[in-house]
Amino acid sequence: MTPGTGDTVCDVVIAGGGPAGSATALTLLRQGASVVLTDPLIADPGRRPEWKLGESLAPRAWPLLERLGVIGRVADGTHTPYFGNLSSWGGTALTDDNFLYDPHGPGRHLDRAHFDRTLFEAACAAGAVRRAHRVRAVRRVRDHWKLMLGGETVRAHYLVDATGAGAGVARRVGAAVRRDDRLIALATRLPPGGTAQQPSRTSLVESAAHGWWYTAPLPDGTSLAMLMTDVDLVAEHALHRPRNWWAGLMATTHVCARVGSGADPAAVRLRIVPAATGRTRPAAGPGWAAVGDAATATDPIAGRGILTALATGVTAAQAVRADASGDREALGRYAERVQAIHAEYLHARTVCYRAEDRWNTRFWTRRHSHSPELADGPGPRG
Ligand SMILES: Cc1cc2nc3c(=O)[nH]c(=O)nc-3n(C[C@H](O)[C@H](O)[C@H](O)COP(=O)(O)OP(=O)(O)OC[C@H]3O[C@@H](n4cnc5c(N)ncnc54)[C@H](O)[C@@H]3O)c2cc1C
């Protein structure tokens, strides 16, 4: 590559500083690569979100966090222990799927915005050059990528899309995103409620006619309460209106008992966030790779989004290194692996939703008809 005067030159530019982008950066930096890590929100203290959805971190993530060298930063007491999942799914009784025998101990209910910042700052401390710009246009110029970050020209041998489920960068370089559903989350934080003296340190799922409800205790003492449903059903039942959303919550058995009925429905501010399953094809190509949700975005019922973000970040970084060392099949193998992981997840998702057959409503019948295969598989958040 022949850089212009004043251009920033690096081995890899990573768009997106969520868990996937930071895990990719940390792995690449350990391998000796030079990295620019850019995120318009996380890198900019003035624009960082106060809270972010996606708080349940399963214990299976500990080995990855250890490998990334961030376990001490994550286990600093900010996040609270997460002992397992309770679910009312396929019946009214609660099923307990706890982490009692997990060799890694409990997971964590995260202050998610803090968690993402921690990983991002760890990557910057390890040598990533931070930028607070959104990656927009990218151009392949001979053997490298050229892009603008604000007024700065950046040239890099490799480009990583860690921008989340929109996969905006991968789409710009020719990949296609396929969505498998139109799942959406309607969530809020509620003040401490319920009858229990101490908050239960578990996540709780309860299925309902038009989707499923979820609650988890957050480290700040509030509870997350969330309805997962489909976009068209939100419109049809006006579920985005706090009053209707609240009525649905009050009609649940277990979630309602957990969060209590004391909150003022008029004060409820709903955050509405897309949560569709989707995959990017291919998930990598010559000189680029997609990681995390930008590669494979999964239903929160699986409770594995953060884990997959970290794992794909590590694996993609290894593929980039192998490619740089002359293994021209490495990025293709990574893309195939992502496809295989996504196919396995789709199968597990179908098995999970088929375990709930009490409602003949569109939310459920859509999900029952997805895959022809049936086998034993994980339940909610398994
Ligand atoms: C409602 C909901 C609940 C969930 N609950 C859980 C849970 O309990 N446990 C779990 O493990 N997972 C959960 N997930 C999934 C999990 O949050 C995601 O899988 C995870 O955030 C993916 O990480 P990521 O780094 O790939 O993407 P993200 O976390 O989405 O980060 C992407 C980053 O890219 C930045 N960005 C976007 N566009 C650009 C651009 N053009 N240039 C530069 N930067 C850009 C954004 O600012 C953002 O910081 C949940 C998801 C949803 C929607």
How much is the average pLDDT? 92
Number of E-type strands: 21
Measured by DSSP, the beta-strand proportion falls in 25-35%
CATH architecture call of the domain at 8-82 and 106-180 and 276-341? 3-Layer(bba) Sandwich
Ligand identities: flavin-adenine dinucleotide
Please give the alpha-carbon distance between the first and last residues. Answer: 47 Å
Radius of gyration: 21 Å
Secondary-structure content class: alpha+beta
The CATH C-level class name of the domain at 8-82 and 106-180 and 276-341: Alpha Beta
Helix content: 25-40%
What is the molecular shape? Answer: globular
List low-pLDDT spans. Answer: 372-379
CATH topology of the domain at 8-82 and 106-180 and 276-341: FAD/NAD(P)-binding domain
Largest sheet properties: 8 strands, mixed
CATH homology superfamily of the domain at 8-82 and 106-180 and 276-341: FAD/NAD(P)-binding domain
Number of helical runs? 11
In short:
This protein has a domain at about 10-80 and about 105-180 and about 275-340: 3-Layer(bba) Sandwich (FAD/NAD(P)-binding domain), CATH 3.50.50.60. The chain is built from eleven helices and 21 strands. The chain has helices at about 20-30, 60-65, 70-75, 110-125, 170, 230-235, 240-250, 255-260, 305-325, 330-355, 360-370; strands at about 10-15, 35-40, 55, 80, 85-90, 95-100, 105-110, 130, 140, 145-150, 150-160, 175-180, 185-190, 205-210, 210-215, 225-230, 270-275, 280, 285, 290, 295.
